[in-house]
Write a structure and sequence with these properties.
Strand order of the largest sheet: 1-2-3-4-5-7-6
Number of helices: 13
Oligomer: single chain
Number of domains: 3
Distance between the termini: 32 Å
Order of helices and strands: HEHHEEEEHEEHEHHHHEEEEEEHHHH
Helix content: 25-40%
Shape: globular
């Protein structure tokens, strides 16, 4: 017994030591943080308990009219208006509030084709499939009018409207799986939101990544790093990175991230040089685990979706991510906005898998562009960062096996979460006027579909672990894939 305990203690100490050296969390941890301790802000987890919170906002009609007149500008310029906030009966006094969101959940629900115009009167862009009544996402700034104000140690909270998630469970389920594999990202739970006495519906109360409180919680020993939002390391212009910087602005040449981008560009299309650049500037194991989960949850609006500018087919960029720069100058990839996940039948199935070799049957050239939702997209295997990650397929397959072995990725465990959370949010969904009556009737069917899709998506990852290329659709689809040669087992893994 003593020897067993000694071995466990030594292994634990060695694991923590290696994790500190790599500037990454030392383990998946629990629901209240990526770190095993739960994080550097012990109280923060209480903002994301496994329940439905009650958020009640009161906004002066004059201030609300000011926000509604130019909602996109408030979001673009990070402006806010004052509001009184009560959460579960706790009066938090005056906070800052504004609308937030990208095209699909916010801009397309405004009246102008460029995603601008007033929020009231409510006139969404034609054919945008927006709710029948306005339901915008909110960003809450607890310290917006009092610098020291916190909610369980946090300064920000996102209330996501879930209008593109038919089950209302995708985002939380995906965030938790990333954390299960040790990738630091947002915590998320549920909230009923009321504004000036009007029930706005069920929301996802999701942690805000782009601030120093997030860093203080997830990297308490390295809280002064930087966060860059949606800047892809193929640009060496410091102004580009200044605009992408999410943590407090300061005069800087962004030397490290510019160096990262410079090495990627210098590698050209050479896979080995790209892998070397990633090893120098990032953490290959971290990236492999990220891609294992990103692939498993079928994240069709993330870093493998390379949307191209209509007038510049060579300008193709991914979506919904952050880079965290540690004090050691390493860049760790963090996921964001995970509502477009866990779906088997999606239009993005036309896009080839990120790790498909180039050239290969069905993908002969990186010059090809695939149209999805009326916009051109580049094949993900042609992106230099993704190509560099794909070189270390040994690490990727190791991460896939680690994910498959995790108890929370079993079909039974995932379905249990779906059933538990569905029971929790059912009354809030039933009262949500932003969900059309037909949508409320279909909600149970969507839950059943999600549970079926979970089994299919796990089976796909089991096929990847067996040596196959990821198959996003049946063989009758527009792409043709061939199985990859399975990796040769290491001597220790051979079976007699």
């Amino acid at each position: 017994m003593r020897w067993t305990l000694a071995v466990v203690l030594v292994a634990a100490a060695l694991g923590c030591r290696l994790a500190r050296r790599a500037n990454v969390p030392s383990g998946p941890g629990d629901r209240h943080g990526t770190l095993p301790s739960g994080g550097g802000i012990p109280d923060a987890g209480r903002a994301f308990d496994d329940r439905v919170y009650d958020y009640r906002l009161t906004i002066d009609p004059v201030e609300l009219a000011r926000l509604d007149a130019e909602p996109a500008r408030f979001d673009d310029e990070a402006l806010h208006v004052p509001a009184k906030l009560v959460i579960d009966g706790e009066d938090l006094g005056t906070v800052g509030v504004r609308y937030k969101g990208a095209w699909g959940t916010f801009r397309s629900c405004l009246p102008n084709p460029d995603g601008t115009g007033p929020a009231e009167p409510y006139r969404p862009i034609a054919a945008s499939d927006c709710p029948p009544v306005p339901k915008f996402s909110y960003k809450i700034l607890f310290d917006g009018y009092a610098s020291g104000k916190r909610f369980h140690g946090l300064t920000r909270m996102n209330l996501h409207n879930l209008i593109r998630d038919p089950s209302k469970l995708h985002e939380r389920l995906a965030f938790e799986l990333f954390r299960d594999l040790g990738i630091a990202t947002a915590r998320s739970t549920f909230a009923r939101v009321t504004v000036n006495g009007v029930y706005k519906g069920l929301y996802a109360a999701t942690e805000d990544i782009g601030n120093r409180r997030f860093l203080a919680d997830h990297w308490p020993a390295d809280r002064h790093g930087r966060l860059y939002k949606q800047g892809w390391p193929r640009v060496t212009d410091p102004d580009y990175w200044e605009r992408a910087l999410s943590t407090p602005k300061r005069v800087d040449d962004h030397q490290a991230i510019v160096g990262f981008a410079g090495d990627v560009l210098a590698a050209g299309g050479d896979p080995d040089r790209l892998a070397a650049a990633l090893a120098r500037w990032s953490d290959p194991e971290w990236l492999a685990r990220y891609m294992a989960v990103d692939t498993a949850v079928r994240n069709v609006d993330g870093i493998t979706k390379l949307s191209c500018h209509p007038g510049a087919p060579g300008d193709c960029v991914p979506n919904n991510y952050f880079w965290y720069q540690t004090s050691a100058g390493k860049f760790l990839l963090l996921p964001w906005d995970l509502d477009y996940t866990w779906r088997v039948s999606v239009r993005q199935n036309r896009l080839p898998p990120w790790d498909l070799p180039v050239p290969s049957p069905g993908l002969a050239s990186c010059a090809v562009r695939i149209t999805v939702d009326g916009a051109p997209h580049a094949p993900a295997p042609c992106d230099p960062i993704l190509r560099g990650i794909a070189v270390r397929r040994d690490l990727y397959l190791q991460a896939v096996r680690q994910l498959l072995a995790h108890p929370d990725f079993s079909v039974a465990a995932l379905r249990t979460k779906v059933d538990r959370w569905a029971a929790m949010i059912r009354p809030s969904v039933a009262a949500d006027a932003a969900i059309p009556r037909s949508g409320r009737k279909e909600w149970n069917a969507q839950l059943a579909l999600l549970k079926d899709d979970l089994a299919i998506l796990r089976a796909r990852m089991e096929a990847v672990a067996a040596g196959e290329v990821y198959r996003p659709f049946p063989p009758s689809g527009p792409w043709v894939y061939v199985p990859a040669a399975p990796p040769a087992p290491r001597p220790a893994e051979r079976r007699e």
